[in-house]
Amino acid sequence: MSIERTFAIIKPDAVAAGQQGEILARIHKHGFKIVAIKTMSLTKEEAGGFYAVHKARPFFGELTDFMSSGKIIALVLEAEGAIAKWRDAMGATDPKKAAPGTIRCDLGTSIGNNCTHGSDAAETAAFEISYFFAGLDLI
Questions:
Q1: Single pTM value for the model
Q2: CATH number, domain at 8?
């Protein structure tokens, strides 16, 4: 398996609940290197651009409202098989269906408020990383 990068977000619900330290500790525990990290707030338009792939879905407005409702922490993570590894660490989108010990099972409260985001494929990771970080941020 090769070293790859993935994109992650600690979402507004987790930041508001003060869970960012726990999530960052789990990132380290799972063996990820944090290549880039920043705290920021998204406008509804910025959230819409990020989630443009979901624009036609009925939950798009709710999603962009939520993602622009408070601070987020955007991260680039690096590890062997980082994309799958991060998705495994997060658990299923619905915390009620997430495996015990995963971030979403332990810290998420609903499908909408599920603490974290992670890229689902290499192409998605490339887009998502470049949406939040310039090349010089990734050296």
A1: 0.96
A2: 3.30.70.141
